[in-house]
Amino acid sequence: MSPSTPVSGLSLPWLVLLLLLEIPGESGETLTLNCSVTGLGPPGPVKWFKGSGSGRQLVYDQKGSFPRVTRAVSGSSTDFTIHISDTRPEDAGIYRCVKFEKGSGADEEIRSGAGTVVSVSARPSAPSMSGPPSRAEPGPPVTFTCTSGGFAPRDIAVTWLKNGAKLPAPQPRVLPAHESVSYSVSSTVGVNLTAGDARSQLTCQIEHSTLPAPLRATYKLSDALRVPPRLRVGTDPAVPVAPNESVTFTCHAEGFYPKDVSLTWLENGNETNLGKPSPLAENPDGTYTLQSSLEVNATEQRSQSMFTCRVVHDSQSPISASATLRLSQPSADLFSSPALWIGLFLEKVLTAAFLLFLFL
């Protein structure tokens, strides 16, 4: 609906009837600015200006092209009301209807209305959110930013929510600091990420007098989160083991995010086969777990060998965990050794000879 401002006249027969009034408008609407003259004035045009003094801007003249400005009553000699279509924030200002008298040279201004103050309110743009330039691990606060622009008047409220709960945040920065036809806002918040934030959501909410309901933008914290895996290596059966027994080393990479991960086995620092990985499993908090098993024959040559699980997660530096293969010697094997029996026999013979020598 186009705003329309009524005016009242004075007694002078040709006075431009425009008083100092204020017309609120909203961006995109059509504004109506009223102006009329009574009686017969001197020959000359009636023009519309925005602003005052030497810097005033011609808004409408009966001659020329003004794409967004049209006469309400085309050709009238008394009604000079105009329509301004597709109102924009920069249309805000004081408008005056001015009567000129036609002269031999330039037209001479003879009368002007007090002016009409036009204020244009504009809705803020849809908020835009940004996070850290790279993934961050749980710990220190990570900064997120929310921006919007093109709004008027200046007052605006920004609220941050994490999973629906309000977060403390500094006052938003509204620019420019001086009076302007439109403004922009920037708000930042620091969030301490946790491993459970793989399924969390951050919301920026904007409230403004032109909005029937708040504007919202959301950010999935999973896009900013990195949780390194926790590694542990175990054996089945537990070491030490008997020679030539089969031993399974198992690597557990637990609680990591995102799921991009590669796992390699090393024996004494040298890469060995890839082992047998289990399917990647998703945990209840949105992180992941991966297991890989390596079967080894516990030969004498492998005694004290170190088996290392090396994991590269999300293109970061490798992390690793290790376990050592240790062999045990069963007691039955000790006494079945011929060399051991010969040694014991010789020990007894020497002991008997020594005792015989002492008593002779």
Automatic annotation (TrEMBL):
<keyword id="KW-1133">Transmembrane helix</keyword>
<dbReference type="InterPro" id="IPR036179">
    <property type="entry name" value="Ig-like_dom_sf"/>
</dbReference>
<protein>
    <recommendedName>
        <fullName>Ig-like domain-containing protein</fullName>
    </recommendedName>
</protein>
<dbReference type="InterPro" id="IPR051755">
    <property type="entry name" value="Ig-like_CS_Receptor"/>
</dbReference>
<feature type="domain" description="Ig-like">
    <location>
        <begin position="13"/>
        <end position="97"/>
    </location>
</feature>
<dbReference type="InterPro" id="IPR013106">
    <property type="entry name" value="Ig_V-set"/>
</dbReference>
<feature type="transmembrane region" description="Helical">
    <location>
        <begin position="339"/>
        <end position="359"/>
    </location>
</feature>
<keyword id="KW-0732">Signal</keyword>
<keyword id="KW-0325">Glycoprotein</keyword>
<dbReference type="InterPro" id="IPR007110">
    <property type="entry name" value="Ig-like_dom"/>
</dbReference>
<dbReference type="Pfam" id="PF07686">
    <property type="entry name" value="V-set"/>
</dbReference>
<dbReference type="Pfam" id="PF07654">
    <property type="entry name" value="C1-set"/>
</dbReference>
<feature type="signal peptide">
    <location>
        <begin position="1"/>
        <end position="28"/>
    </location>
</feature>
<keyword id="KW-1015">Disulfide bond</keyword>
<dbReference type="InterPro" id="IPR013783">
    <property type="entry name" value="Ig-like_fold"/>
</dbReference>
<feature type="region of interest" description="Disordered">
    <location>
        <begin position="121"/>
        <end position="140"/>
    </location>
</feature>
<keyword id="KW-0393">Immunoglobulin domain</keyword>
<keyword id="KW-0472">Membrane</keyword>
<dbReference type="InterPro" id="IPR003598">
    <property type="entry name" value="Ig_sub2"/>
</dbReference>
<feature type="domain" description="Ig-like">
    <location>
        <begin position="229"/>
        <end position="326"/>
    </location>
</feature>
<dbReference type="InterPro" id="IPR003599">
    <property type="entry name" value="Ig_sub"/>
</dbReference>
<dbReference type="InterPro" id="IPR003597">
    <property type="entry name" value="Ig_C1-set"/>
</dbReference>
<feature type="domain" description="Ig-like">
    <location>
        <begin position="124"/>
        <end position="222"/>
    </location>
</feature>
<keyword id="KW-0812">Transmembrane</keyword>
